[in-house]
């Protein structure tokens, strides 16, 4: 079965506001104010918790090390788990695009570097869990993207074949994951990186979810 696998943060949904809020909760707890800004730091937010913490410490100009990042990371996760869907929004056309693919006989799955439990909580709160046959998170397997194993697991758990699949994402990590799995990558241009994702030379760019069905048919012919 042909399968389309989606990244979550920055691809299906703009989660940057809630991620930045969780990181700022850490800095407030350390006696600082809100160090990060949701619009200014969206691209860093969508890389994950640790990159946000590093950026915040750098911006503060204080002495810091990776032990401090590691110490605050569980605090960030706890804050995020308590407010996983306050500012998050699905990108326009995302739901309709997935529904169209499924109606056309495609399997759909999510492969994300967000911890699995948080990813499950988010997509359930967004009301889209039933649109995906599988979800593989950062901690589902011993490895995470850009390793090919989580991607392959997402495809197989959704009932598909890796050789008949593609990855829709928004970062270089997604591009590298697709290359490791030897499948096409489609990078969205409506995330924080915008058209800049073209520098990673994906097989295709996606300007709007309305175009995904036709693109998937072209990249995954029967």
From TrEMBL:
**EC number per UniProt:** 3.1.3.18
Residue ranges of the TM segments: none
Keyword Transmembrane helix found: no
Matches recorded under Gene3D superfamilies: HAD superfamily/HAD-like (3.40.50.1000), Putative phosphatase, domain 2 (1.10.150.240)
- At the top of the EC hierarchy, this enzyme's class is hydrolase
Q: Which GO terms describe its cellular component?
A: cytosol
Kindly state a single biological-process term from the GO annotations of this entry: DNA repair
Q: What is this protein called?
A: phosphoglycolate phosphatase
> What is the taxonomic lineage of the source species?
Bacteria, Pseudomonadati, Pseudomonadota, Alphaproteobacteria, Rhodobacterales
């Amino acid at each position: 079965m042909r399968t389309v696998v989606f990244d979550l943060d920055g691809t299906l949904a703009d989660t940057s506001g809630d991620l930045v809020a969780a990181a700022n909760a850490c800095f407030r707890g350390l006696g600082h104010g809100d160090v990060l800004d949701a619009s200014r730091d969206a691209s860093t937010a969508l890389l994950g918790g640790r990159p946000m913490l590093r950026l915040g410490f750098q911006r503060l100009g204080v002495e810091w090390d990776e032990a401090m990042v590691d110490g605050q990371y569980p605090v960030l996760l706890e804050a995020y788990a308590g407010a996983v869907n306050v500012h998050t929004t699905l990108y326009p056309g995302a739901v309709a695009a997935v529904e169209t693919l499924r109606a056309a006989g495609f399997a759909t799955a999510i492969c994300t570097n967000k911890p699995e439990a948080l990813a499950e909580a988010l997509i359930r709160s967004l009301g889209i869990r039933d649109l995906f046959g599988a979800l593989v998170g950062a901690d589902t397997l011993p490895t995470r993207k850009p390793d090919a194993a989580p991607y392959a697991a997402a495809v197989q758990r959704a009932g598909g074949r890796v050789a008949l699949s593609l990855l829709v994402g928004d970062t270089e990590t997604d591009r590298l994951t697709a290359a490791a799995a030897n499948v096409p990558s489609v990078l969205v241009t409506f995330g924080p990186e915008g058209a800049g994702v073209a520098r990673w030379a994906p097989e295709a760019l996606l300007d709007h979810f309305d175009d995904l069905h036709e693109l998937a048919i072209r990249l995954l012919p029967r």
